[in-house]
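Friendly challenge for the regulars: who can give me the structure tokens for this chain first? No prize, just bragging rights.
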Amino acid sequence: MYADVPNFTAIIGAAKLTGKTQNGLSVGFVEAVTSEEKAEIDNGGERSYETVEPLTNYVVGRIQKDFNEGKTIVGGIFTGTNRKLDANLDDYIINQPTRGN
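First reply, four minutes later:
Bragging rights claimed.
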């Protein structure tokens, strides 16, 4: 048996948006999409292709507010991941893990 497995996942695209208002509200977002990657498997001359990395969208968001001329800061962060899973990966990877702090 032989398997040709990719060493990395290609980034299809990414974007970043940041800004701050005059009243001290700061926001930032980063988003990226990575491509699906497949391994080529040869098992005694029988070739197949299995997904090893699904098409995935990553997002990070942050919001922050300054008070007392920047002496006090309150904020939070949110992260999210959405994956397009096939039957091969459905039992091994969580489709939509989300986190907020």
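The chain has a mean pLDDT of 88. The CA atoms of residues 48 and 55 lie 19 Å apart. Your move, everyone else.
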